[in-house]
Amino acid sequence: MTNDIFAYLLENTLTIAILFGGVMLIKKLYHRRLSAVMHYALWGIVVLKLLIPVGIASEASPWNLFSSPQTAVTEVAEAETDSTTAPEQNTVWNDYRRFVPADSAYQAGGAAAADTNKQTAPSQTIPQQAPVVPIVIDWPSLILILWAGGFCFTGAWLIVGKMHIQRQIERTKTANPPAWMSNMVDGCRAVLRIDRPIGIVLQKTLPVPAIMGIFKPKLVLPAHLAEEGDKKQLRHIFFHELMHYKRRDLIVIGLLNALSAVYWFNPIVWLLVKFVRKDMETACDSNVLSAMGEHRRQDYIFTLVKFTGKSNHCRVQAALSLNDGKSGMKKRIAGMFLHSKTKSSVKIPVILLVLVMAFACFTTACQPTPEKPVVVAKGDLEEKITEAPANSPQTVTTSEKIVKSMSKGKLNIEVNATVNVPKADKFPVVKTEPIGFTQEQADKIISVLMQGKPIYDPPEQQTKAELQRQLVYYKAMAESFTNAAAAAGVKKMDNAIADLEKRIAEAPEKVDLKPATGKFEERVEKWDGKIGYEGREIQAVAELGQEYRAQLFINCSKSKKMSSVWFTHQDTFNFYQTYNSLPDGTIAGLKISRNDAKALAEKTVSDMGCDLKLSTVRLAPQNSRMDNAPNKQAYAFFFTREVNGVPTTYDVNDGSMLDAPEDKKDLQYYEPYPAEQLYMIIDDTGIVELQWVSPSKLTETVSENAAILNADEAMGRFEQQFFIKHAPKTKDQANPEDVKNGMITDEDIKRSDYTIDRITLGMMRIPVKDKQGEYMLVPVWDFYGSEKITYNKPVQDITKGDKGKMITEQTIDHSVMSLLTINAIDGSVINRVGGGLG
Q: pLDDT at residue 432 above 80?
């Protein structure tokens, strides 16, 4: 029996390890071709095996190699038959045999002794066996006791930890949440179609939002979130936590905790729990973006990043928090760029592989691992580059306009586009590499953006003036409640305002600021025992004459790929929006002229030591968090790399994931590399926002004048590829969970009308095939315009946040978000969102 126990434990552990490794292999092989939800769902087969540890016996099972040899049993049986020993002596032997492995040295010796002494007196057998009786161990009982002890200890650790967190939350619970917050939660529930009421608890124990309770769910929020009143941020938080509830992730966490206790001895199970939780968060993020809209991705990422690094006390408890820790944030961000649905061409082989593993492991017969599928790689782009004729300039366009119409199914395209080509007669291909920021350059940036003023470390305490601005926002928010349900909660809002007024009375007029060094400080973050981020950073604030401080952040990773400057000098509750910026035109309400603003922008870029060139000028509307705030606009200047007069095309989809090939990258530790660009927003107060990312330098000229597709040829590729890329998904094609969470599918759409009004030839950075860390700037054609969707029935306009109305039509701006990018060298489609070349 002992042999059976050990054989079972070994077999079960190896089976789990094989399933775990098989799932990891599938995830690695298909990587970015799998949706985030599919990545998460694959773990189900391992969990199922843990729930059903027994399997169907099979003669082909390799586990027979670990069972007791039949020869040993036969020898014992012969010894028993021929022995003339007294029956009680045989009983002693038989009982002991039940607890000793069949291949043990003692059993082999005992059998040999019995055979040797067949002709001797039976009494001689007893003295030989007697000495072993005192060390006879009841192995099944011992194993059971050890397992029970580990089970009780692990279970107690989980339960006590949960109870401790709950007591801490109860002890630090603050006032009831304001009515506007409850109404916002109710609105989010309605969007996600959650009928059960969800409570809200404001507390000071957990620094990150979480949802707890399977039967009585409640949102547990840091108290300061109610005080800050950031509606957009809170909406992201509520969608995320409520999506966990809708997906029944709390039940899964409870199940994982139970499995951790049952299989406390198996390290594979602890690894499984860790990976499932990470993929659960990534899948939840994907569902949230499907519900809110992909255009919300950047703001949603900012919300996640804000809570990164905060202590998370409920990691092992029956709760799910917004913060997945620094170890998981990069993977989560990368997961948001995965396909929202796994294609049938990928899903079918994946399901077949899972079924093969299930058959093998649930029948305890492990079949040979299938060979890797043959992958036909794309050719090297460098091999396709040819030089254009040296004596005559290339004709990249024959007309300034392209006009045509196309239709297929529900998709209709009207092309009435201006063809924008650079004023250049040569189109180069060059190699580039990241250079990051030096301390000398950081000194320049600080001097220019902080205007030579003293710089300080960011303060931790708010001043009276800052709280007063927050009070104005609270009061404006209270006045925005117009319906009867919201009006019923005005008193609670008044209480929050009263509390804030008390804090204002006690707040200092000013806080003591500690002078900042302005020098880079090293920062190393380890994720799962590996270095996830290693680099340097500078954080500082300065008083520049406004009622709010200027903030500056400079960072440079060790690889130099994640290097950026972020500067802001504007009111927290009123900010300019560059994502939905308006086409360039005449600005109203600004005293500063466009030329003066442009001169300031170009001088700032030059003084910082940046060699990027002005690429685009647009209008940035102000996105106020106060309903009664005046509508304001500002100039938005975008600077990009220019090579021999050919500029890099500015696009909000920066291709930061292009160098994450499916067969080489582990996204958990992948470092995104955004496109090199700088944007700056200027209003009458000066520079209110600036971001400079991924500084680089040119290292090699691959071609001084590469032969490229002309506009008509690019248009031909557009006609071939557009309908493939933008074909709406049917409910059968879409992930069922996404559909359940409100994903718009082909059945919801009556028609989609696309308008192409601009076709642009410019440069774009792409990774060099099979050469890690090498990049090229190549000419590409981009198609910009807009999309108008007409729905079969009213749907909620979630782009308007909690004020979204039911709409039957929706227009999406694609003026800086390419509808299709064509490589001008070989005509291939480049996916700017990420995930490799199309």
A: yes
Mean of the per-residue pLDDT values for the chain? 76
Q: Facing residues of 777 across strands?
A: 430, 765
Amino acid letter, 601: A
> For residue 223, which of 238, 211, 206 has the smallest C-alpha distance?
206
Distance CA 242, CA 254 (A): 17
pLDDT per residue over 234-255, tens digit each? 888 888 888 888 888 888 888 8
Decide: helix, strand or coil at residue 655: coil
Please state the pTM of the whole predicted model.
0.54
Q: Are 709 and 821 in contact (CB under 8 A)?
A: no
Other C-beta atoms closer than 10 Å to the C-beta of 64 total 14
Backbone torsions φ then ψ of 770, nearest 5 degrees = 60, 15
Q: Which of 177, 181, 244, 183 is nearest to 217 (CA)?
A: 244
Query: Which residues on neighbouring strands pair with residue 550, listed in sequence order?
Result: 542
CA–CA separation, 539 vs 550, rounded Å? 11
Q: What is the largest CA-CA distance in the chain?
A: 119
Structure tokens at 344: 């049938």
Structure-block tokens of residue 591: 């005293």
Rg, C-alpha atoms of the chain? 33
Task: Decide if 508 contacts 463 (C-beta within 8 A).
Answer: yes
Length in residues, the chain: 838
CA–CA separation, 489 vs 752, rounded Å?
41
State how far the Cα of 37 lies from the Cα of 35, in Å rounded to an integer.
5
Contact 103, 69 (CB under 8 A): yes
Q: Could you report the per-residue pLDDT of 288-345, keeping only the tens digit for each?
A: 888 887 777 777 777 777 776 555 544 444 445 555 555 566 667 766 666 667 777 8
Helix (H) or strand (E) holding 16: helix 2-30
Secondary element (H or E) of residue 336? none
Q: Does residue 175 contact residue 221 with C-beta atoms inside 8 Å?
A: no
DSSP string, 231-257: HHHHHHHHHHHHHHHHTTHHHHHHHHH
Token pair of 457, please?
């470390």
* Beta-bridge partner residues of 433: 697
Number of Cβ within 10 Å of residue 469's Cβ equals: 17
